[in-house]
Amino acid sequence: MDHIYPVALGGADSEENWATTSMLHNSIKNNWTLEQLNWKLYDAGNYEEWDGLTALFIELVNADKTLLEDSYIKKWYRLSC
What we know:
Layout: E1 2-3, E2 18-19, H1 23-29, H2 34-37, H3 54-63, H4 71-80
Antiparallel strand pairs: 1-2
C-alpha cells in the first residue's frame, strides 16, 4: 500500500488516499506526487485475467516442496493457496 498523495505533503492517511503498488514502486515514489513523477493510477485489474503470477508461484512450489523450507516462501505459499 502507498499513499497516492504523500502524507508528508499533507495527504490524508485514509482509504481514499491509498493505492496498492509494488515495494519497488513504493520505494521509488517516496514522498513525490504522481504528477511530479509523471505517473498515473490504473484501475484494478481483473484477477481472473491475470493473477500477478500467483498460479505460477503455487505450481513451482508444488513441483519442489523443498522450497517450503524457506520461511518467506512458506508464508507466501500459505497466503496464496
